[in-house]
What does this fold into?
Amino acid sequence: MSGFADFDAFVRTREREYIDELKVLIRQPTISAQGIGIPETARIILDRTKKRGGIAAEALTVDGGPPTIVGETGRGERTLLIYNHYDVQPPDPLDEWETPPFEPTERDGYLYGRGVSDNKGNLMARLQAIEAYRATIGELPLRIRVLYEGEEESGSAHLAAFVARHGERLRADGCIWEAGYKDAAGRPTISCGLKGIAYLELRVRGANKDAHSSLATIVPNPAWRLVWALATMKSESDEITIDGFMDAVRQPTTAERALLERLPFDEQGMLRIHGIKRFVRGLEGYELRKKHFFEPTCTICGIVSGYTGAGSKTVLPAVASAKIDFRLVPDLTPDKVTTLLRAHLDRRGFEDVEVVPGHGEPPSRWPTDSVTAKAAVDACQSAYGTAPVVYPLLAGSGPMAQVCDTLGIPVAGFGSGNAASANHAPNENIAIADYVDHIRAFGRFLHAFAGRALA
Amino acid sequence: MSGFADFDAFVRTREREYIDELKVLIRQPTISAQGIGIPETARIILDRTKKRGGIAAEALTVDGGPPTIVGETGRGERTLLIYNHYDVQPPDPLDEWETPPFEPTERDGYLYGRGVSDNKGNLMARLQAIEAYRATIGELPLRIRVLYEGEEESGSAHLAAFVARHGERLRADGCIWEAGYKDAAGRPTISCGLKGIAYLELRVRGANKDAHSSLATIVPNPAWRLVWALATMKSESDEITIDGFMDAVRQPTTAERALLERLPFDEQGMLRIHGIKRFVRGLEGYELRKKHFFEPTCTICGIVSGYTGAGSKTVLPAVASAKIDFRLVPDLTPDKVTTLLRAHLDRRGFEDVEVVPGHGEPPSRWPTDSVTAKAAVDACQSAYGTAPVVYPLLAGSGPMAQVCDTLGIPVAGFGSGNAASANHAPNENIAIADYVDHIRAFGRFLHAFAGRALA
It folds into this structure.
């Protein structure tokens, strides 16, 4: 580890400067869902990437999408792709922020602001790690490619086209995905994939307008139709019962099962945090972890029909709808889900239940013993002085498959977040110590991924 | 019928005066749900009942309830109870009224205003009929008792206590209920009962707050719990499957079946009005009418959970709820429904689904060949020159059982409404001709109910 003593000292000396640099980026709102600050932020990032980062970079667009920044630096046998996004979630609800979302604020060792965790912090920390590597260790022993997207938080609508057009500039032997988090027990974690997502809406129409509920004897009720249709999709024991759906689920490999066996998972902490007495199906241990990491979901995110105000109204609703979110594992894809669900409903006489597809991403799952994952484990072990927890994937979703599955690049993700970073929520935060540690770990990762020994 | 020529002439002469008298009553808002105008209206009604009506009446209250007006006049072998209510529904949504709800307005032969149909119009028409009877035919050949309630539109919370305290002043051989309507084909109708109602809310809690939907693998979702619970309550073929529920449904008698066989029911008109292709279960004819008049309902009036706005939000909801309205036929009661449902849910492991009882009324169904019903049929035949349609009951609900079942008084209802009277809705209306005809029919009814021949 002696090789990184200078690196660590360099980073600690510049800690204040690095945090200030991140604060500048946080002060610039970049809300892709609302079209706020996209070109402005792209300019800041491009400038930082080229000038201090020493990365030959440019901002490209496809089909009227936002600027996507790609760049390249260093030379070596291996090529690493770094994926980050520079856009952030909308800051609403504003009145729940203790300090304004776009005024980065330090409190008790934490930095608060929209995007500090998701994902401007990691983007900046990794640029700073490259800089520190060059300053203390020397020339990069690998080729680094960067991909900074500007619309991840609103669905990455142009990313697939971008990869199709510019894939050659993204090819690599490994990819570091946007983020990673310390778990509730403070352990660093690494994840090697993401679940996919298929978000869709079910809609049912009954009469042409709400009717008096005394007519419920004879006039069909779309709320009941929706309930009956939903009840065919998932059983009371939480098993997804859409025809053919579970057949598409790839079972964990022997290696993945072994990983799951030893995966730390703070069950009591999760029960406490969510205020529940038991998990779904009363599961625990291996079976709970297997369900969480290797099984898909079918979630009612929202359902509404008829009168939902205070008191009572004797109404027979004219419309009913539900928003459904499927989290996907291999080999489920959004298209497959929509097709299976349509056939499933039709087969049961629910032709009247309309299926309206929304946002979709396929899943992306990579071996936990890839060159990327192994280098990440070594880097975290060295930087944190403890073995990281390796997750087969994060249960969340993102456009990983559009990049890594398309180009065949094994993934690992680790970063500066914590278990209460509040991504997408008010008071998003990172610990300043975790930010510094991510720079320290990322410098080591570059070294390890290039095949150099860390100790 | 010659005996009623003078009566009819008298009513036609006073038509303008009678309508103006009704307008005065409409101009006085009486919104029991909002505590508006109750004592003011009670004073107007009491004054009208005593002074011009010649009815010995008084306003009584029980347990802090609104004034309930009871009165008595006439002598004879039979006693008739007239039930009306003087309160009205709130007029919202105000901007959908073509003329203000409390400014009674005549347009194209119709009178518009809140309460013209439900129920101030019938209340006033019947007082005017009694007056016309005395003026043209002579002394009343029966004893008439009146009961004018002031909180029917907000649940009749004090009526049961009133009947318990003052039941002796309400005893009668027959009761005329508040209302009746011409059907869509313009035929006068009579109904001999009401369905009851049990309105309740189902509530389920999951985690202590909304969670990220990626946790749906392991954190229970109250929206799914609610859907599964609901799906056990009614089958896809619209059969109520709550244990023991349908066992409590009294089957139609031979007489009722015969009535149903010949009951006119404009199926094509109903399909058109509601913009639907088929009725529930694809029913038609006798089976459709039987379901409508003799079967209970279990209706989702409202359901809500999670995110219901535009676009998508990947949320795992913390709470879910549904408002359920049961329309009851004998021998179902609100208490029985709540008890059966609780046991049904518990038996299936849905102890987490809370059942919160709301407004309830037992059903009330009376023979269609009672003395009351027969006199109503004769009166309508005479006044309208056509045989009325006799419904076993109205599919709506009201506090009929609290009065008539408690005291054992057979019911009939007929009145001045039409198929588009828009009770409880904007632009409530009656045809002025129907109003006059109700006075004409009601005068005849008094005669027939007292055992006098009409022809």
